Amino acid sequence: MAREKVIGPSSGDDERKQHDAALRPKLLKEVIGQRKVAERLEIAVRASQKLNEPLGHILFDGPPGLGKTTFATVLPNELGTSIQMTSGPALSKPADLLPFLTNLEEGSVLFIDEIHRMPRVVEEFIYPAMEDFRIDIVLGEGMSARTITYSLKRFTLIGATTRSGMLSGPMRDRFKMHEHLEFYSVEELATIIRINSGKLNTPITESAARELARRSRGTPRVANSRLHWTRSYSAAKHDGSISEPIAKAALDMAEVDSDGLDKNDRRYLEILIDLYGGGPTGVEALAATINLASDTLSDEIEPYLLREQYITRSPRGRVAMPRAYTALGKLPPRPKPDDKQGSLFE
Ligand SMILES: Nc1ncnc2c1ncn2[C@@H]1O[C@H](COP(=O)(O)OP(=O)(O)OP(=O)(O)O)[C@@H](O)[C@H]1O
């Protein structure tokens, strides 16, 4: 298995990361869903082993919790090499990258989460490392400045981003593979839930696994957290096992509705409909009213609402779709007769 080295400041919610790490698949064959992505990665791993070359740099993009870190940690396991993990916000200057680059082993992986948040000067510093496995360090200033070139071990950079559009063109072009992760089907999430309840020694019925899966916003991380909550609920109120009625009661208590929308999703839709007349309205205005960062809205809340057609994005902002009205128990407005076809719900 890959040895995991974490150097420098950790990047966030440690408890959530521990839960994630405990349930994370270790090998490609244990990864559920994302079959096309997994098959392409399998080819890349085999080729790297046969040709005795490091895996080409890989960029994963997609909404949070869909498995970007999972794929990044599975690949060094497949290759029998080590991984170092950091994140864009932890790398504020080129020197922050040095401990990672100097600790590289031949063929090892450097994983940078939220790579779109890496400052431009760090990005530029990493280009020669990605292209030629070298870095240029400038010593001194002005006329007396000189550049020392330092050779690195051949390595693989794996970047993860929720916003591939925010990555500069030159950075994007330096990745050999770009893999986009999609939301999961109910069947795939039910499989993940069954496997993870096994890992947590929690008996679960087939229909309970499906109920949790249906209400997990197409996202494995959400499925894991619904499973953890339901397990605690059952341990506290029942015998620790999960049946369909227990799953339903636990999720109702957590205010997850029958479609899987949580409090933040419903608040978003309520504000869009009640306060902004269903839109169009800009994400900044919505974020200010909901009192959440606009990044949280566009990275975590909106992708699922867009994909499930609760909302749509028009040039003038977000617009509530008929499904949003139904989810809140409201009647969708009728399009006005003089509206252009589809103008209300573009
Ligand atoms: N394809 C998968 N098969 C099985 N389990 C998965 C899969 N993808 C994700 N998971 C589960 O979901 C958890 C969260 O996934 P992961 O941390 O990889 O998401 P992420 O896309 O990196 O999210 P973020 O960008 O927010 O860090 C994992 O610990 C794992 O348990």
From TrEMBL:
SMART domains reported for this sequence: AAA (SM00382)
Region (Disordered): 1-20, 327-346
Coiled-coil intervals, chain numbering: none
Gene Ontology biological-process entries: DNA recombination; DNA repair
Keyword field: ATP-binding, Cytoplasm, DNA damage, DNA recombination, DNA repair, DNA-binding, Helicase, Hydrolase, Nucleotide-binding
A GO MF label: four-way junction helicase activity
Residues binding DNA: 313, 318
List of residues binding Mg(2+): 69
Gene3D superfamilies (alphabetical): 1.10.8.60, P-loop containing nucleotide triphosphate hydrolases, Winged helix-like DNA-binding domain superfamily/Winged helix DNA-binding domain
Cellular component terms per the entry's GO annotation: cytoplasm; Holliday junction resolvase complex
Region Small ATPAse domain (RuvB-S), residue ranges: 185-255
Annotated SUPFAM superfamilies: P-loop containing nucleoside triphosphate hydrolases, Winged helix' DNA-binding domain
EC assignment: 3.6.4.-
Subcellular location: Cytoplasm
Domain AAA+ ATPase positions: 54-187
Top-level taxon: Bacteria
Annotated positions binding ATP: 23-24, 65, 68-70, 131-133, 174, 184, 221
Pfam family, one: RuvB_N
Biased composition (Basic and acidic residues): 335-346
Catalytic reactions on record: ATP + H2O = ADP + phosphate + H(+)
Region feature (Head domain (RuvB-H)): 258-346
Family according to the record: Belongs to the RuvB family.
Function comment: The RuvA-RuvB-RuvC complex processes Holliday junction (HJ) DNA during genetic recombination and DNA repair, while the RuvA-RuvB complex plays an important role in the rescue of blocked DNA replication forks via replication fork reversal (RFR). RuvA specifically binds to HJ cruciform DNA, conferring on it an open structure. The RuvB hexamer acts as an ATP-dependent pump, pulling dsDNA into and through the RuvAB complex. RuvB forms 2 homohexamers on either side of HJ DNA bound by 1 or 2 RuvA tetramers; 4 subunits per hexamer contact DNA at a time.
Record remark on domains: Has 3 domains, the large (RuvB-L) and small ATPase (RuvB-S) domains and the C-terminal head (RuvB-H) domain. The head domain binds DNA, while the ATPase domains jointly bind ATP, ADP or are empty depending on the state of the subunit in the translocation cycle. During a single DNA translocation step the structure of each domain remains the same, but their relative positions change.
Complexes and interactors: Homohexamer. Forms an RuvA(8)-RuvB(12)-Holliday junction (HJ) complex. HJ DNA is sandwiched between 2 RuvA tetramers; dsDNA enters through RuvA and exits via RuvB. An RuvB hexamer assembles on each DNA strand where it exits the tetramer. Each RuvB hexamer is contacted by two RuvA subunits (via domain III) on 2 adjacent RuvB subunits; this complex drives branch migration. In the full resolvosome a probable DNA-RuvA(4)-RuvB(12)-RuvC(2) complex forms which resolves the HJ.
Name used for this protein in its record: Holliday junction branch migration complex subunit RuvB
Organism: Frigoriglobus tundricola
The encoding gene: ruvB
